[in-house]
């Protein structure tokens, strides 16, 4: 089993888990959801259909998809008391701080779907999380700008509803651009699940203690916020802006190679992929499409990103260490072109990944042994010693 660690006293513990949801072949740069490759799902499917696939294991029939979409659409509203929860935050709070707080608080508002021993409550909690995340994330965005909340509408699709809740204002109607909605939906799909990454492992660990679903997903969102994980798309765009022009790229590549310099190329490298992240390939193509749509031509940030990728991939250091662009390398460029500030990049990642967290949470609960994820340690601290009174200490 992967992740088997043998400790000195002959102690063996496994910190792996078996899963049927997502498979990554790091050497090939392949990502499968229930056996279907991500590039085909990104091209031919849509986010809610991928949600169904991740949750239930098979692509839905037309009738199953209609029923699932109806249930998600009709759970997109938040308990109206929750808006007072939002209003308790400072206006300049990072949207992730608000989102993690609100997600954790959901167990206080939806306590009728917190009993993890009841399969029906588990199902309701799953639908509620997927349905309400666009509203939570959009309201965190609106609140951070001092703008009124926009309520979801049932006549819009999942991505279009989110865009409207983010960019509409009461003073004028917002027409959802279908190409923008398609690009948004594709970003959701590409971030939906990714095997046992740090945030998903956090959710599994929390769920193995029997914590309620909203608490488990909030724990995952808190972990995703880290700059080495879900925060990397924000960090990558800041890096591309700092580089500024293609003539400065060699300076930053040299820094990334310098062992004494803590600088790393954000959006590059991966714990598992030792080939190009297949999601990065789709996002690179999508970046051109979205920027053209937004009338943004010769975007300097995209030019720097493409030239940086080219020079890094030609550099023996990155080739030898098998460092390639990951999902975060181009996603920030697209989201910025769509009108989102960098502070909204990780929240959109969390929105997309909620179905992955929920699917893995349900799978962890279905584990008959409910193995408590409790990795052992290799103790290297002080040996046994008796207490020393303060008068006798040196
Ligand atoms: C995500 O796991 C997931 O699935 C996560 C994710 C998901 O969808 O959930 O894919 C999302 O988190 C993608 C990763 C986003 N993070 C970044 O882009 C931040 C920059 N990347 C790194 O911090 C780093 O690449 C990690 C943390 C992602 C992986 O680090 P590792 O495990 O150290 O990578 P590695 O073992 O492959 O590194 C090999 C070598 C090391 O040098 P040596 O110790 O061998 O001398 O390459 C170096 C690393 O120091 N290295 C880099 C580098 N990433 C690794 N050097 C320069 N720039 C980089 N980006």
TrEMBL record:
- What GO MF terms are annotated? citrate synthase activity
Which Pfam families does the entry mention? Citrate_synt
Asked whether the keyword Transferase is assigned, the reply is yes
Q: Which residues form the active site?
A: 270, 328
**Which SUPFAM superfamilies does the record match to this protein?**
Citrate synthase
Could you list this entry's UniProt keywords, alphabetically sorted: Transferase, Tricarboxylic acid cycle
Q: Which Gene3D superfamilies match?
A: 2.20.28.60, Citrate Synthase, domain 1, Cytochrome P450-Terp, domain 2
Q: Known InterPro entries for this protein?
A: Citrate_synth-like_lrg_a-sub, Citrate_synth-like_sm_a-sub, Citrate_synthase, Citrate_synthase_AS, Citrate_synthase_bac-typ, Citrate_synthase_sf, Citrate_synthase_typ-I
Task: Report the superkingdom from the record.
Answer: Bacteria
* Annotated metabolic or biological route of this protein: Carbohydrate metabolism; tricarboxylic acid cycle; isocitrate from oxaloacetate: step 1/2
Q: Which reaction does it catalyse?
A: oxaloacetate + acetyl-CoA + H2O = citrate + CoA + H(+)
Q: Which GO terms describe its biological process?
A: tricarboxylic acid cycle
Q: Can you list the GO cellular component terms from the UniProt entry?
A: cytoplasm
Question: What family is it from?
Answer: Belongs to the citrate synthase family.
The protein in question is named Citrate synthase
